[in-house]
Amino acid sequence: MTALFTNYDPDFASFLVGTASPGNDHWPTARNFLLDERVSRGRAECYGKHGAIAGHETIAAWRRCHEAYLEKEIFVRGDSEEPPRRIDAQDPDICPETFRYPTIFSSLGGTLGSYLIRVEKISDLMDTLNQSFEDILTWTMDALAKKPGALQDLDALLGQFASQRDYRPAFAGVWEDLSDLFGEVPDEDRSDWADALRNRLGLYHYDPKQSSTVDPNKPGSIDILVFRYPVEVVPCLSGFDDGMRPLTVPCVLDGDFSQAFFPSPRESDTGHAMDLVDIRPCGELTREVLHPAMRLQAEHLFRVGSITRPVDPKVIRDRRGFHLICLQERFDRSEYGRHTDQDLL
Fold first, then answer.
1. Rounded to the nearest 10 degrees, what angle do helices 150-163 and 122-129 cross at?
2. Which of the two residues, 215 and 305, has the higher pLDDT score?
3. Which residue of 155, 174, 257, 326 could cross-link 287, Cys pair, CB 3.0 to 4.6 Å?
4. How far are the Cα atoms of 5, 129, 166, 277, 313 from residue 316, in angstroms, in the given order?
5. Is 321 exposed, middle or buried (0-12, 13-18, 19+ CB in 10 A)?
6. What pLDDT digit, counting tens, does each position of 214-224 carry?
7. Is the pLDDT of residue 181 over 90?
8. What angle do the packed helices 10-19 and 59-69 form, to 10 degrees?
9. Residue 137 and residue 134: Cα distance in Å, rounded?
10. DSSP letter at 102?
11. Is 90 exposed, middle or buried (0-12, 13-18, 19+ CB in 10 A)?
12. Cα 292 to Cα 184: distance, rounded to the nearest angstrom
């Protein structure tokens, strides 16, 4: 199986090859489209219906089409209620295309007792719920401290948050790969756990410097909530039995353009986040999956913290090259990525 977009449409392929030059702002994204082996023909046809498969005049034109596709097919609006606990895979109003086409799901979906970890910005709750930072911080810290009534108050807040958001797929990391950052209690955590978690999950957009609206040269912090929850609480998908949840491997059509995303080979059972800083052994890549949108629960709030260190955009080139070498080694695919990233090896 080869990457579909290398030969699906000659004009689009030519555009991607031209955009993949390191001199372009979105060169990693273009390379990913030429590399991703998980895009099915059905999904490509749907992507094309939104004008995204073409010999675009500019990268901005491509991005507009990509965003139109996401808004219609991935960031589905639902019915202004919380995401359902069971999703009809044939209903495009509640089920993103990510889970509608025949998909090879991760075996982790059958390990209901294993745990996932997910990060949310406090600012997203503030904007969605029109609440102050101080109020949200009080609710979350009281819930962590198990104060009387605090879990119920936070649950009500999270219910409102879920009902006002779309049903886009949720990225989550595998707890087993990240547990070394944390102790049994917060006082035993690594002092830099929030920055390290951001880096290991490849959350390039969680960058205080990029997010600063006052002075990018004097970035503040990005305050986050970390949720840890069992696979069992992920919504079910029609056609699945009760012992399986729809965890799948992310591909280039599942989200916004990202400098730090890197598609995993077809043999992989999960995605693998590209670490933004550390060079870790290839056997210790952080696994990531996508699952349907779900209502977060107060009992699964695990930590509250602040990301303070900026991301250095200059590291993307080196980190991408190292990540590719690890994937080649881990899946015995020495040829993987050579047609896109030979210059990084």
1. 70
2. 305
3. 174
4. 23, 34, 30, 9, 6
5. middle
6. 455 566 899 99
7. yes
8. 120
9. 5
10. -
11. exposed
12. 29
| Pair 297, 154: CB distance under 8 Å | no
Task: For the chain, give the number of residues.
Answer: 345
Angle, CA of 79, 170 and 110, to the nearest 5°: 105
CA distances from 135 to 125, 156, 311, 317 (A): 11, 14, 29, 40
Please give the pLDDT value at position 216.
Answer: 54
Question: Tokens at residue 139, please?
Answer: 């609710």
Q: What is the mean pLDDT of residues 150-167?
A: 94
Phi and psi of 151, rounded to 5°? -65, -40
Could you tell me the two tokens for 165? 């958001």
At 290, list the tokens: 């996508």
E-state strands within the chain? 86-87, 115-121, 170-174, 222-230, 236-237, 271-273, 286-291, 301-307
What is the spatial distance between Cα 312 and Cα 316, in angstroms, rounded to a whole number?
8
The CA distance from 97 to 70, in Å, is 9
Question: Residue 72 has what pLDDT?
Answer: 96
Q: List the one residue out of 329, 321, 315 whose CA is nearest residue 345.
A: 321
* Neighbouring C-beta atoms of residue 211, cutoff 10 Å: 17
With beta carbons less than 8 A apart as the criterion, state whether 224 and 68 touch.
Answer: no
The mean per-residue pLDDT over the stretch 185-204 comes to: 96
Phi and psi (nearest 5°) for 290?
-115, 145
Compute φ and ψ for 220, nearest 5 degrees.
Answer: -95, -115
Hey, what are 157's tokens?
């807040």
